[in-house]
Amino acid sequence: MNRPAAVLDDALAYLDTHFDQTVSLAQLAALSALSVSRFATVFRQQVGLSPYRYLCRLRVRRAQTLLLAGVPGSVVAAEVGFFDQSHLARHFKRVCGMTPGSFQRHARAAEPA
């Protein structure tokens, strides 16, 4: 992935700090001074993902950190901005190839004894 165009810097920074909140495409487009459709096109071209998929990936990465810290999945889902635990599990599996529970078990098994 190439470095995204500077026009996306504010939108990416906003996503990085507000990933746990509801974020609209219109908000992100306004931060980039682009129309919604142009923003979506530029974002996909520069980042390689749609803004929604990028946001989900950010949430899953943060969820991984919390799960490794021993936070229960139901709490993690709310902390990272997913609607509920099943919403987290669906996106987690798509991004990581395993459920949050499997991820925790795998991480525990890999810890040195």
Report on the structure:
By secondary structure, the protein is mainly α. The protein is 69% helix and 0% strand. It has 7 helices and no strands. Helix 2 packs across helix 3, helix 4 packs antiparallel against helix 5 (73-80) and helix 4 (51-68) packs across helix 6 (85-96). The protein starts with 8 loop residues before the first helix and ends with a helix.
Low-pLDDT windows of residues: none
Q: Structural class, from secondary structure content?
A: mainly alpha
Strand content: under 5%
- Describe the global form: elongated
Helix content, binned percent = 55-70%
Largest sheet: none
- How far do the termini sit from each other? 37 Å
The arrangement of helices and strands along the chain is HHHHHHH
Count of alpha and pi helical runs: 7
Calculate the mean pLDDT score and round it.
92
Work out the number of β strands.
Answer: 0
Radius of gyration: 16 Å
